[in-house]
Design a protein that fits this description.
Bound molecules: 3-hydroxypyruvic acid, zinc ion
Number of strands: 14
Helix content: 40-55%
Number of helices: 28
Structural class: alpha/beta
Mean pLDDT: 95
Radius of gyration: 25 Å
Distance between the termini: 40 Å
Shape: globular
Strand content: 5-15%
Low-confidence stretches: none
Length: 632
């Protein structure tokens, strides 16, 4: 514990310490209390077994999951060199040169982030991601990058999975040292849903870069460049790759929709190039970019900017592979794909389909189909655990052209609707989502503007207000918080401005901000936050903890308290984590390398008069009992 305290101290981390570090900081000798991790884990398993877990009610059938076999490696086996080795040896310019000279199409695999954000409400746990990490590093070293962090994963890891997003990054980085790691950064909104003070965003970027993120895909939910410029600069300052994104919306081929046209995207791309982007991303977050539009867009952007282009799309209507192939034809450099068992529908197009399509062509991706298949089979099995988070869609759905909802929002909004008692009315929510877009004057919808549109749509459906009624009686309603924030200018400025009739109705006399919100927000005092955190959680905090707290406040505290109560839950297998144990079932838990707990649940008592039950276990052969309040 002593070493743990010291190596996380900012002065030590900065490299500017002397032996006085120890004299000046007696608090380094306050050690975390020795924890009985087994007792804490038994408490968690008992709670879940009796009361169910978040999103999975007690009594839901526990799936049977049989993992396929996959290769294993010795601890000291080194994977083949990949793009990260090139970055480390030859810098950003050397990497881009190598990629261009290769002539191939490069791939980013999104399975570890956007694919499960889009298909499974972001619920995939570190446990399941880490188990296949060696195989990814050894068998598919030829990716451009792995998108494995950021977006909604930061929030969801803490809020629902009770695990530390920084730990996920660290353990994956250790297992996959050779492939670039990519994250999705929401510009001034970092990995949250609102604009943060500049020093919070900068500190987050510094820590993420230090922890192993190489490529930062930076976007703004309204395509408002002032909200992205600071992040681009900070990523460059850290020596990392700033991939600035233009978010695509509407329909380029529809002459009636003139707001987001080719000239708009070209102008935006030029602004991002001037702001210092290393790569330009086209972020088609909803899957609205049709194949011919993709060809036109990539070809035109190539004529006007000198940056490599990276295409991100969703396969919602089923056009994803066609869209990528058309973009490749127009000179696309990098494409986002997901392993086939985690692809399609609201997720990315299938990597195997793209790899096979380009085989023996000039743009051959040089990826190995059988290696992709092994990984896909693994995720196909693991996905069973997450059944309760599936969308229920059987196939692609072209109604995305109506609602224009981002793939990453679909299952998340469904869960939000269910929690408000609107489970059977999701079609209405989708219709309202489109109506809200039109009321707002047609805007870019991606986190957090998409979250605001979702909140607005839920508000209409829940209160049975039609778009027409809203137009007539706009001043009479109290709007959801995110809608008020949007019209207050707290998410930035939308292209074309706010519709004043609705802005007046929402703000009810309050002033709206016209400047960049981050510029006016007072900087956060990180030392004060660290002290506050220690006070609230009783834990010695790392800089990463402080950043999580700065971004997520109470969500972070709740997570830290859950860890205090249950210890680190990311060691539990997913079946046990979500569904608990059934009598006679056993969980084998490796709490440290080589340190294993064998937990067998024997029985659960009937409820006692005080509402508690007793859960009986055998822990490494010894009897143990745990008391739980039955909340059913
Ligand atoms: C996110 O911001 O989480 C997204 O995936 C946006 O598409
Ligand atoms: Zn996406």
């Amino acid at each position: 514990p002593f070493l743990d305290n010291v190596i996380h101290h900012p002065e030590f981390r900065s490299g500017r310490y002397t032996v006085r570090l120890i004299e000046d900081h007696p608090e380094l000798f306050i050690f975390r209390k020795r924890q009985d991790r087994a007792t804490k884990l038994l408490q968690y398993i008992s709670d879940v077994t009796v009361n169910g877990s978040e999103g999975i009610k007690h009594g839901v059938k526990k799936p049977t999951v049989r993992l396929p076999s996959f290769p294993t490696y010795r601890y000291d086996d080194k994977p083949k060199p990949g793009t990260r080795d090139v970055l480390l040896a030859e810098g950003v310019d050397g990497l881009l040169r190598m990629m261009k000279q290769s002539g191939q199409l490069w791939l980013t695999d999104t399975t570890l982030r956007d694919a499960h954000q889009s298909l499974l409400a972001t619920r995939m746990r570190t446990y399941d991601l880490v188990r296949i990490a060696d195989v990814i590093a050894h068998e598919t070293a030829g990716y451009f990058s792995l998108e494995m962090w950021g977006g909604a994963t930061f929030d969801t890891a803490m809020r629902f999975l009770k695990e530390d997003p920084w730990e996920r990054l660290a353990v994956l980085r250790e297992r996959i040292p050779n492939i670039l790691f990519q994250m999705l950064l929401r510009g001034a909104n970092a990995v949250g849903y609102k604009n943060y003070p500049d020093n919070v965003v900068n500190h987050f970027i510094d820590e993420a870069a230090m922890a192993g993120i190489d490529v930062f895909r930076i976007f703004d939910s309204l395509n408002w460049v002032p909200n992205m410029a600071g992040s681009i600069e900070r990523v460059r300052h850290n020596g990392m790759i700033a991939e600035a994104a233009i978010c695509y919306t509407g329909d380029l081929m529809d002459e009636k929709r003139t707001k987001f046209n080719l000239a708009y995207y070209v102008d935006l791309a030029k602004q991002l190039e001037r702001a210092g982007a290393t790569i330009l991303a086209i972020k088609d977050m909803a899957g609205l970019l049709k194949p011919q539009a993709a060809h036109l867009l990539v070809k035109t952007l190539k004529e006007h900017v000198g940056l490599p282009i990276h295409l991100h799309t969703h396969d919602t209507a089923g056009t994803g592979v066609a869209t990528i192939l058309q973009a490749v034809d127009a000179g696309l450099d990098i494409a986002d794909v997901a392993l086939s068992s985690m692809s399609g529908q609201t997720s990315q197009p299938s990597s195997s389909a793209v790899v096979a399509s380009l085989m023996n062509t000039a743009r051959d991706t040089r990826m190995d189909l059988s290696a992709l298949r092994v990984q896909s089979d693994y995720f196909s099995a693991v996905r069973e655990w997450y059944q309760p988070f599936e969308s229920g869609l059987q196939a692609g759905a072209a109604d995305v052209y109506e609602h224009e909802m981002p793939g990453g929002q679909y299952t998340n909004l469904q869960k939000q609707a269910e929690s408000l008692g609107l489970a059977g009315r999701f079609d209405e929510v989708k219709r309202a989502y489109r109506e809200v877009n039109d009321l707002l004057g047609d805007i870019v919808k991606v986190t957090p503007s998409s979250k605001m549109v979702g909140d607005f749509a839920l508000f209409l459906v829940q209160n049975r207000i039609s778009a027409q009624e809203l137009r007539q009686r706009a001043h009479e309603f109290d709007y959801p918080g995110s809608v008020v924030d949007y019209f207050s200018g707290l998410m930035g400025q939308p292209y074309g401005g706010f519709p004043t009739w609705l802005q007046d109705a929402v703000l009810k006399g309050r002033e709206a901000l016209k400047e960049r919100p981050g510029a006016g927000l007072p900087p956060v005092d990180f030392e004060q936050l660290a002290a506050e955190l220690k006070e609230k959680t009783g834990r010695i905090c790392t800089e990463q903890d402080v950043v999580s707290y700065a971004l997520y406040g109470q969500v972070y505290i709740d997570f830290a308290m859950a860890q205090n109560r249950y210890s680190n839950l990311s060691v539990l297998d997913t079946g046990t984590f979500f569904y608990g144990l059934r009598p006679g079932e056993e969980a084998i838990v490796e709490i440290d390398r080589g340190k294993t707990l064998m937990i067998r649940l024997i029985s659960v008592s009937a409820p006692r008069p005080d509402g508690t039950r007793v859960v009986f276990y055998e822990l490494n052969g010894q009897p143990r009992e745990v008391e739980v309040v039955d909340q059913q």
